[in-house]
Structures are given as C-alpha cells and as structure tokens.
Specification:
Nucleotidyltransferase, domain 5; 5-stranded mixed beta sheet; 25% strand
Length: 228
C-alpha cells in the first residue's frame, strides 16, 4: 500500500512515502519556519523517487502534535486537502507517540519524549517499554521539569529523547540514577515510524475523520497564537 506521511510539528519538515513493496523513502529537512515553502516540493521529490503520482497514494498519515502551532496547521491543511480531493483515508497520530518510537528497542523500563514547549515547559508523555512496542501510561502533558520528575518512580530506568533535552540534560543526569539520554539524531519524529504506526491502524480499519481532525496543542486557547 502506498502511504504518504507528513510531520510538521517541529523545526524539522519530515516527509515519508512507502510504496506497495514496503520500501520507504524519507526526508527530514531543517525547515525552521519554511514548512509552507518546502512541503509540496519535498512531497513531489518523494513521489518521483518511486515514480508515483499523488493520485496513486492510498493513505495519508499526519502527525497531530503537540508542537509548532503554525507548522501543525500547514501540515494538517495539506493532508485534509489531499484526502478530500482524492477521497482517501487519513490517519492522524500524536507526535509524542511517533517520537517515542525512536527509542526502540531499549533496555529501559520507561521511554519519555521531551519537546520544548517554551515558557519553561515541556510537552511530554511516559511510555512503558516492551520488546518492540510501547504502552502510554500518562496523559499527553504540558508540564515543567520538576513536575515531570515527580511522576517518575525512583529506581526505574528511563530513556529520554527530544529537543527538550537541550534544556534539561544536566538536571536529568543529576536527579535520576538510571537514565539514558539519546543524542540529537533521535530528537525529531521519523516518517518511517509514522508510517509504521499508521500501518497498524490501517490493518485494523481504524481511520480518522478528516473533518474532525484537529492539532493537539495542549496550551490553553488564549496562549496558542502567542506561543509561536
């Protein structure tokens, strides 16, 4: 099945395409605030790689955030437009779920992705790690580092990843005994993981309603515009 995956919640523009043979091409560009400028050319590049037209895409997958307010709107609007024009199913997935997959496989008990939410806050969630799968054991959080540390039981081993590490690396190492901190190669969502998770939903026939899809912001509504 041909799946086009789009993730625009961070400074990285992440695009992936899987063809019917199960082969994946993916791009992760340092877009900054240029998502709208780079999104369509990168999608075209991915399609050319497999010599496909957009009309051959059977499913669209989109990261819903939390993350950049502007980036999320651009990505979601694009996918909604494609899905409506082509009458194709859409799978919308939380960015924290996608990001947490970067840490697999792991020897830790817990995986915790950290996304810089500004204002001394983090977007985060806690996942119980199995052999090659995760189970989320917390809500999606907008939280400060002290409150997050209180949620982690003493003695458990934790793997952290995400751009929030750049703010709190020293504190995490000082406060937690059994901690693994992944390097920057693991800090941003990978399109291949979005495709993997979307494939699980496709296999179960679980799709999102494009008209009801909304970004996951977590910030109160009155803060959303000023947050970016």
């Amino acid at each position: 099945m041909n799946i086009l995956a789009i993730e625009t919640s961070s400074k990285k523009l992440c695009i992936g395409l899987m063809n019917r043979k199960g082969k994946i091409v993916e791009y992760a560009l340092d877009a900054g605030r240029r998502h709208s400028e780079l999104l369509l050319p990168t999608i075209k590049k991915a399609l050319r790689h497999f010599k496909l037209s957009l009309g051959k895409v059977e499913y669209f997958a989109i990261g819903l955030g939390p993350g950049s307010f502007t980036g999320l709107r651009i990505g979601l609007a694009t996918v909604k437009g494609f899905a409506a024009a082509l009458n194709r199913p859409v799978i919308g997935l939380p960015t924290l779920d996608i990001l947490a997959q970067n840490a697999l496989p792991t020897t830790s008990n817990i995986i915790c992705p950290l996304i810089d939410a500004r204002r001394n806050l983090l977007f985060a969630a806690l996942y119980e790690a199995g052999l090659n799968k995760l189970r989320r054991i917390s809500p999606y959080l907008l939280i400060d580092i002290e409150e997050l540390l209180k949620r982690i039981e003493p003695g458990v081993s934790v793997t952290f990843l995400g751009d929030g590490i750049s703010l709190y690396r020293k504190k995490l190492k000082k406060r937690l005994k059994n901690v693994i901190i992944l390097n920057e190669d693991y800090w941003y969502p990978r399109p291949s993981n979005l495709i993997k998770l979307a494939g699980n939903f496709i296999g179960r026939g679980r799709f999102s309603n494009p008209q009801r899809l909304r970004p996951i912001y977590l910030y109160p509504k009155e803060c959303q515009i000023r947050n970016n």
